[in-house]
Amino acid sequence: MSPLAGSGCGAISTEAAVPTPLPGGPMSNGTLIVGGSQAGLQVAVSLRQLGDTSPIILVGEEDHQPYQRPPLSKEFLAGEAALDSLAFRTPDFYADSGIDLVCGERVSEVSLSTSGPPGSGVAMTASGRELPFNRLALTVGAGARRLPLPGADLGGICYLREYNDAADLRTQLSTATNVVVVGGGFIGLEVASAARSLGRSVTVVEAAERLMARSVGTVISEFYRQAHLRRGIDVRLSSAVSGFQGEHGRVTGVTLSDGARLPADLVLVAVGVLPRTELAEQLGLMCDQGIVVDAHARTSDPSVVAAGDCTVQPHPITGQGRVRLESVQNAVAQAQVAAATLLGRLDTVMSVPWFWSYQGDLRLQIAGLAAGYDTQVVRGDPADEHFSVLYYRHDRLLAVDAVNRPADYMTVRKALGQGASIAPDRAADPDIPLRSLVGGPAPAAPAVQRAEA
């Protein structure tokens, strides 16, 4: 049996009329972590690593144990990875660590005590189960943004956020002929690449003027447009979807706002995510395109922490403005900080954001945040499909986008972590190893009011 679906998850009985013991022991107050995400598991693991011995309850909506999500749109979809291989931990790990893992259960209500210690309270699951807690961490993640368009409920229109989504998409992809991907971001292009590698006819429809516009600069966007065209993927920019057509309850086509119609027997909608803020709003916590937290992962109620894709936070390097970071690196780093905060340790940690997107044989690696750049330096020739782009603001190194050039990515990531810079006037020479150009401290960071990444 898959370790994700095995006995490591303690599903709560929906037939219980009164509270019954949780798997692994009697119900008792401790830390309640809502959300079986990578951030949620990391909070639990970090609490134990920091010496916390109090009860920990980790509750997730999915029937599976916490697992890696990035491979869902890459290796898993291409049939190169099985569900078993995605599990973060074995079932025994949770029992051995004293972590009560509850799968397939949604926390629908949560309230804080008005008379108990700060941060204590009780949560209620959708099945009517009460979960009292002394400390609370929200790691509820985000959900796929839906398109409220005519025909959006037809069969064959898919979204990709969780394992069940990916399993359904992989099954349908095995028999599809014409695939339309709505959205030219990381997920959309990764799925498009996987579908094309299987021999499907693929069209990507993007409403913006360029691909991955929220994440990369213009040079990278144009390179990927041309690279995907060379691989046989039709890319439609500045094109909005107005509806879907179908027969017998299943999608047959996609209509664009200019009246064009694309044949489709499988559609993936990948137009971003919406942070899950419902529980935070119940608690009266400040939300602004996510749950607002400070550098210590504290919400507007400092006794409650939050981490992962559900949050917006200060810029992780400059501390200025607010950013929402959807990445494995941020989920782990922020969860580690959240665990320390729950134990009263307000450590200041600078963490360089990094991301990746593997689209077939095109491996994009990003370090830093390029928002607000005024100069970009290209190393190498994009036509060779091995190059990088460094971003600067007032000669201060901000970030790098590296395509099949991992050494440049690692050099910039390390430099940013050290607060160092790389002279832009020499960085353009691909014959000079980038690591030899890492210099002293970067110039002072200019003020940034708000950034999105």
TrEMBL record:
GO cellular component, one term: cytoplasm
Cofactor section: FAD
Keyword terms: FAD, Flavoprotein, Oxidoreductase
Zinc is among the record's keywords: no
Species of the source: Planotetraspora phitsanulokensis
Protein name: Ferredoxin
Chain ranges of the FAD/NAD(P)-binding domain: 32-335
Chain positions covered by the region annotation Disordered: 433-453
Cited InterPro entries: FAD-oxidoreductase/Apoptosis (IPR050446), FAD/NAD-bd_sf (IPR036188), FAD/NAD-binding_dom (IPR023753), FAD/NAD-linked_Rdtase_dimer_sf (IPR016156), Reductase_C (IPR028202)
Keyword presence, Flavoprotein: yes
PANTHER family with a match to the protein in the record: APOPTOSIS-INDUCING FACTOR 1, RIESKE DOMAIN-CONTAINING PROTEIN-RELATED
Entry GO MF terms: oxidoreductase activity, acting on NAD(P)H
Domain (Reductase C-terminal): residue spans on this chain: 354-437
